Amino acid sequence: MKLDVTTLDGGSAGSVELNEAIYGLEPRADILHRMVRYQLAKRRAGTHAVKNRSDVDRTSKKLYKQKGTGNARHGAASAPQFRGGGRAFGPVVRDHAHDLPKKVRALALKHALSSKAKTSTLIVVDDLKVENHKTKAMVERLGKLGWSSALIIGGPEVDENFGRAARSVAKIDVLPVQGINVYDILRRDTLVLTRAAVDALEERFK
């Protein structure tokens, strides 16, 4: 698969050959869905908690005698049905992450890349080097390129000026190639890869 390479100024910088095994697959929604659920579940804090019956600081003395009062049988005042008692079946601190095979995760990334290639929303740029870190200049540049919602993937390291200029722009995410992931690819309309990112992904999937 051959794709034209552009520059940040909108000019042409030749073309690049994309591997069909990475960018030419038929996207499967079920695999992408599994991967997105895996990512979102893994990043949940899981710090939600309430006081259950054993955590409430109330007397454990029996409220009244077992028989003869005509009332229901009760023990400690920390029971959930009493005001001030513990919460029944409340949330506890836990990890929401679940397992997903490594091969499925790798396949999901290929399908995410292929989905962008299939819909012609995959763009390859020569590099991300800019002269200054002014956000205003970056907004004008991105507007001319038509990147209103984009995930921009650089090489092993993102140009410092570009990263600083783009970090305040809404719906523009900039990551090094090590940080590429399925969720961020799918949540933005356009995926922008540098030549270095394309080479790194080729090497990664060998």
UniProtKB/TrEMBL annotation:
Belongs to the universal ribosomal protein uL4 family. One of its GO terms (cellular component) is ribonucleoprotein complex. Part of the 50S ribosomal subunit. Signal peptide: none annotated. It comes from Methylorubrum rhodinum. This is Large ribosomal subunit protein uL4. The keyword RNA-binding applies. Pfam families: Ribosomal_L4. One of its GO terms (molecular function) is structural constituent of ribosome. Keywords: Ribonucleoprotein, Ribosomal protein, RNA-binding, rRNA-binding. The gene is rplD.
